Amino acid sequence: MQIQRTYLKASGLTDMFRGIRAPGYLSFIITLAYHIFLAEKVDVAVVEVGLGGRYDHTNVVQHPRVVAVSSIELEHKDKLGSTIREVAWNKAGIFKVWLISIIATTFSPAVPGVVATNQPDDAMQVFVEEARSVGVSATITVSPSLLSLPIPCPLFVAPRFVDIWQEIERDGGAEVSQRFADLVREKGVPPVTERNICLALAAFKLWHDQAPEVAPLPAFCVTRIGSIPGSRKTDAFSRISFPAGILSARVVGRFQVVQVTKSVTFFLDCAHTTDSIKHCSNWFNTASEMATSTPRTQIIRILLFTVTGTRDPGPMLELLQVHNFDAVHFSGFKGSNLVRNFGKTPNAAACKASWDRLGTSTPASELTDAEVVPFIRTLKGWDGESRLKLNCGAARPKAIQVLVTGSVYLVGDVLSSFLSWFGQLGRRNIPLPGQSAAPAGVITASHHTRTHTRVDNRSPITALSTQTRLVRNS
């Protein structure tokens, strides 16, 4: 019903203002989301930027409570630029000044911005420059004498995971530190996720400081940075317990393991850039060994991969070939009534050409759109004993491991197939993120880089003192 109402309004605008098109898919989705937020009186909304930030369709919120920027890498170069500085400039476009009311000499503070740690120097320089320029451009008159004051845009840098760990040990002792270490190992937190956990904690803290209506947090101190190279601490930190929940946060399709049968395991990661494939490769190296006790010589490893549009698959495949896959399939997307833009269409031919240039002995083949689901169904239906026919020849392995990566859409296709096949098991048999391991045929998840935390107003929420650092813009 909400979709119908929003679409009719969009269509009505097209009829009213001839020549102005109705919003595209992404613009429509965010318009629908904002409409639902208002209609349902949502208290807090976390909005993820679609592409870049400065010119993104989500960047219409003028007065957010906090903005956050994750790690910077060269992606969407045709739209965001071909250098780190250009990408960072687009990302920094979400920095805002928070002006709810200006009466006489009263004005509200700027919106705090927080960025992930270990950003490239070029990116950090751009962030500082843009935070400063936001303050300058928001200069206002605050008195009858026309005295103009710049409104600062405070810029924070999230802590390192190791700093959090050290603080836990310092405040809680060896026993607490060991429990935390056990928790990290149990949850299987990859290094890339550690950085985003820190960013999530810092963003949550900055938001919480402006939300007196929710349960209070213990005192929180920051580290100021006079310049990018150096830093100094201000005051002592309060002892704050680390929320185990943030280590259990999951997003489907990122560092995810699906035990299809006792003998067939899928490893899915929606990485689609060289940097993210690097993290995916490291994760798969560990996760594949932990998933089975079967010797490697009795395991068939299969890579199911594709890229979309004009992405260069060569550097990604070069990183993945170290896993010595027994078979490689470059896939299309399963059949759909949706019409995809060129930038979202699979390019299996480019993947095959790049793989051939690597000179590896592992055979590779292309799967058409119509062949994707039957291929997955063949693996799902393998009984664990009979001879399996693959493009590497006939084999009788003890186990099969399939890595699916390179495209968010490909991972989505595979997961949607699993859901359609296992739907008769009932939703209760598909565990939510953080639940215990499920039996064969049930979807489970490892850890993802983005973190979502539910706020419960009934009890105080405690989070580790994240040693957030304030970048001085002066």
From TrEMBL:
Keywords: ATP-binding, Ligase, Magnesium, Metal-binding, Nucleotide-binding, One-carbon metabolism. It catalyses: (6S)-5,6,7,8-tetrahydrofolyl-(gamma-L-Glu)(n) + L-glutamate + ATP = (6S)-5,6,7,8-tetrahydrofolyl-(gamma-L-Glu)(n+1) + ADP + phosphate + H(+). It comes from the Eukaryota. GO terms for cellular component: cytosol; mitochondrion. InterPro entries: Folylpolyglutamate_synth, Folylpolyglutamate_synth_CS, Mur-like_cat_sf, Mur_ligase_C_dom_sf. This is tetrahydrofolate synthase. GO terms for molecular function: ATP binding; metal ion binding; tetrahydrofolylpolyglutamate synthase activity. Its EC number is 6.3.2.17. Pathway: Cofactor biosynthesis; tetrahydrofolylpolyglutamate biosynthesis. The keyword Transcription regulation does not apply. PANTHER family: FOLYLPOLYGLUTAMATE SYNTHASE, MITOCHONDRIAL, FOLYLPOLYGLUTAMATE SYNTHASE-RELATED. Belongs to the folylpolyglutamate synthase family.
